[in-house]
Design a protein that fits this description.
Layout: H1 2-6, H2 12-35, H3 37-40, E1 53-57, E2 60-64, H4 66-72
Antiparallel strand pairs: 1-2
Amino acid sequence: MLALLWAPGASGVARVWLVWIVSACVYLSFFVTLGAMSLFGGANYDDNAYPPFKVRLPGGQHLLDMNTTVFTA
């Protein structure tokens, strides 16, 4: 996407929109999966990696992984 964005040539605005759409699809699919984990029994952390930390969010206390926190920021 960076090469598409930075490459010289015509239709620069169209390429910016294409990069924006692809990026939005990636982020949207991540957050939809994150929100739907309770439907398929998923977890937001790996049992064999760094230990998760507890965070109080609406709906109760949740375990979060540092990777998800950094990705979200």
